[in-house]
């Protein structure tokens, strides 16, 4: 398999070009900006002799044609990463839906069990009432066994026994209707859970296969990348005079936001795994959730990146020139639509972020462009900043 992967990797660039990928001649937005929705996971991606497909169509087309194969592959990796992140976030959403459906099914089963027990009690009460009333008026009929079950009620004629309680019949009718309703609700919950589980399975398969395509591109890129470029990237990831209390416009990050930053830095090097929020693995929104929800205790803080934006944007949207440590930065497929957000990062300061990037990678520090042409689409502040300490 290693030989196959290596062979496939060496012809990635040729395959992308010869395979019918159109190269736009004009400048366009950054890679991934054409993604207007989460890729449809309704169909299982095909594989060819066990090799997962590379990104195709619009997603495989860089925004502009780079001058070198390395730059071309870099942009291909960026687009493929954005697609994989979108699918990973979709998996997380569907995982939450499945868990909610599973809990709903368990609750519906509990409700039905209670309703069934009450129905049995009502039937027993009806049998007893009918038997008592009949026997009080007429004595036991031949062949009748006291308390032998619900079928015995059908052998009696309550209308012949004046003492047969109307309330007993009413309770029996009500219990019968309640059990029927609970049984229908249980069947509906089971059906919903089954659909949720199927959707989750399909989405996981789509993510795993398409992400393998991204990994092939990433491997090829690393082969072509020079040691000098790798050293420059490692240098960019280093923290220089890092201070989570650095001020902006007389404000500093809230102490709790600084705690989240320090927590995220403690996770450096831990592997990425979608739908995980620690302690050993993280996906992008799992890292931010673990900090703000689990560590700080913000129970309103959601799990998925696009929901994290919606929840925090209502509190404070931040300009890129006024960021503070702990702020959240988001990548979206469509800059005008927050519902297409697929990646979230924690700002550190000095144009650096800490984030969980994608499979095959880890929690790491990255340097990003916050100036003209910045790939960052949205930025929010989770907890309001506080006044900077006055200089003595």
CATH hierarchy class name of the domain at 239-387: Alpha Beta
Helix proportion: 40-55%
CATH architecture of the domain at 239-387: Alpha-Beta Complex
The strands making up the biggest β-sheet line up spatially as 6-5-4-3-7
Number of helices: 9
The fourth-level CATH homologous superfamily of the domain at 239-387 is endopeptidase domain like (from Nostoc punctiforme)
* Structural class computed from helices and strand pairing: alpha+beta
Q: Evaluate the radius of gyration.
A: 31 Å
Q: What is the first-to-last residue Cα distance?
A: 65 Å
Strand segment tally: 8
Low-confidence stretches: 1-60, 157-163
Bin the strand percentage: 5-15%
CATH topology of the domain at 239-387: endopeptidase fold (from Nostoc punctiforme)
The biggest beta sheet is recorded as: 5 strands, antiparallel
Q: What best-fitting shape do the alpha-carbon axes yield?
A: elongated
Query: Can you give the mean pLDDT?
Result: 76
Query: What string gives the helices and strands in order?
Result: HHHHHHEEHHHEEEEEE
Describe this structure in words.
With about 400 residues, this protein is an alpha+beta fold. Among the domains are: about 1-95 and about 200-230, no CATH class; about 240-385, endopeptidase fold (from Nostoc punctiforme) (Alpha-Beta Complex), CATH 3.90.1720.10. Helices cover about 50% and strands about 10% of the residues. It has 9 helices and 8 strands. Strands 6-5-4-3-7 form a 5-stranded antiparallel beta sheet. The chain has a 3-stranded antiparallel beta sheet with strand order 1-2-8, with no helix packed on it. Strand 1 and strand 2 (about 250) form a beta hairpin. Helix 3 runs antiparallel to helix 5 and helix 7 crosses helix 8. The chain is elongated and about 105 Å long. Residues about 1-60 and about 155-165 have low confidence and may be disordered.
